[in-house]
Amino acid sequence: MSIDSEADLPYGTRIGRFVVTGELGKGGMGIVYRAHDPELDRHVALKILRAAQATEEERMRMLREGQAMARVTHPNVITVYEVGRQDSIVFLAQELLDDGTLAGWLKQKHTHAEILEKFAAAGRGLEAAHAAGLVHRDFKPENVLLGKDGRVRVADFGLARALGTDDTLPAETRANIAAAQMELARSPMSPLTRTGAVMGTPMFMAPEQHAGERADERSDQFAFCVALHHALYGDWPFPAPTAAALANAVLKGKLQPPPKGHGVPERLRRILLRGLSVKSSDRYPSMSALLADLQRPPSRAGRQFAIAMGAILLVTGAVVGGYVLRSREPSKQAPLAAFDAKSLTNDKGTTWLLTMIERDRLDDAAEKYEMAAQLTKQNAQPQQTSVAESAEALVLALRGQLASARTHFASAVKGQGADPIAGAYAHLAGAAIALESGDLRGARTHGAACASSFSASSPGLAALCYELVGEAAAAADDRAGARDAFGDGRDLARSGPGALGIEVAAVELELDDGKHDAVATKAAALRETAGDAGATRAEAAAWILIARAHFAEGASQQALEDLGKVKAASLESFALRTEHQLASGMAHALLGDPDEGFDRIEAARKEAEAQGAAGHVLAARLARVEVLVLLGKPEAADERAALIKDAKAKGFARIAKLAETIDQR
Hints:
Elements: E1 14-15, E2 18-27, E3 30-37, E4 42-49, H1 56-70, E5 80-86, E6 89-95, H2 102-105, H3 112-131, E7 144-146, E8 152-154, H4 159-162, H5 171-184, H6 207-210, H7 217-233, H8 243-252, H9 266-275, H10 287-294, H11 303-315, E9 319-320, E10 323-324, H12 347-358, H13 362-378, H14 382-399, H15 402-415, H16 420-437, H17 440-457, H18 459-475, H19 479-493, H20 499-508, H21 516-533, H22 536-552, H23 556-564, H24 574-590, H25 594-611, H26 614-630, H27 636-649, H28 653-660
Antiparallel strand pairs: 1-2, 2-3, 3-4, 4-6, 5-6, 7-8, 9-10
């Protein structure tokens, strides 16, 4: 008997090895049945995906998305047992839960703590899926399932994209279709999972989805914050009578003020506002970072006291293993005069900064230095304010937030006066900003100046300066200069924070020489050492380097598996996040999914372009050209020639050389 995915299936219908025993519900993605698995004697939820009118390519995409879901094993992600095809349908068998959805649970009254507990669990599910390369694209409480065992599971990862052809249409066409469908929608709560345009439920859709652009992990973050806002306040952040009005409010960031008497702490509102930012780059770098903020114990004192204590803890040396100790708060506010701003530059203060960079906790570092800058400014200490602002500019540059970094850098330079330490910190920030912006000469000049200034007083910071110099030299294809800089940095860092990161950067130089086996072996040893030491940044960099070595050997599947082992929380660094996304895109493209591969590469290019990170834009273009050449695409020659010309003009000789030698590698 031929099966139609749009028709109701009677009791006893066999789909694969599963026997339908009843209907559980219908949704935008298909019909869900209760079914029995006679081989394992268990009941399952059998989702019949809407595929009757789908093309063969779309059915294959559904299968791939379902198979990807099946590979995610996490307590807060629905367990997928099997994915398959029968006639014109695609089916997915998953665990059968018995306690409704988060949407149903939220209809009852709950405390803020109970709501946060449920959402944190759902957020961990999103975090795990993102780490595996999956994006939900339609997160909402209806897609969060509850079990009587108390567990929370997120379902339907990636299926919203699998059910549409939005990738194949020009961006302008997608945006026009999205706008037209928004106008036709009678209610913003209509579950508009649709083909050929934007996919998702409008009330939860991020600005980029309303605009017909590609959704990514930060789109899921936006939807998560919409849902949490509604759960906490009992009202939507962007209320509107129609979906068209909703889209306009979301795209312009027109949030409504919170209702009176809500009782939601201001700390939580700040988290939600960041997650609901119009620009995806202004949201949290990952679900891990958002969850870390969401689950951080709230302060019991006022904002001014929080600023004072946060900065004091930062700079008075209360550091163990790189983490600030949280002592019991005194009953009275500490006087600002007790704040010793000179501690910003003592050994413990600089070790704290280097450790936060090593552990890729850049958001935390930026927050603490912002607090320190406010305190020193209030106490009329311009040189110390300059140091704090330079340190903040440094970590913001490493995060890829170049516009904000430049603002703080300009203020730091203005206030540094003749103080040599403040000047050295300004050079350090300047080197990071120049490197991320693609100004390789500026990075080397600032880096050399700060290395010279810090060598005697702070070897760890001098080592970081040398690392930045080495990265700039490598990008300019000055391999000898890069080796010298990394060697000088390694000697200064010794076994302190940052040493492993320099080691990984030095090993990367060997990749261009074709020493793939040696690079993989050395990087694997460094990865293990970094993991044991808690050096998150170096560990992630080593995994990416291992993946690149495997990729260079033609082992794309192994490379993708390597990349899957990078912890989502370890990608606050913009450079690492971009490298990871580009390597992942190349692997997907060469494993038979060029659409997904080019999407990832293009998303990385767009983000780099938006941040003004010229070097990363060129790196994304190189990744695209490599894939085009390897796939034998006719447009490869023109794009390669243009890339080589642009890379040489901007001083990125290494990228130009790699583009020229694709056929030889």
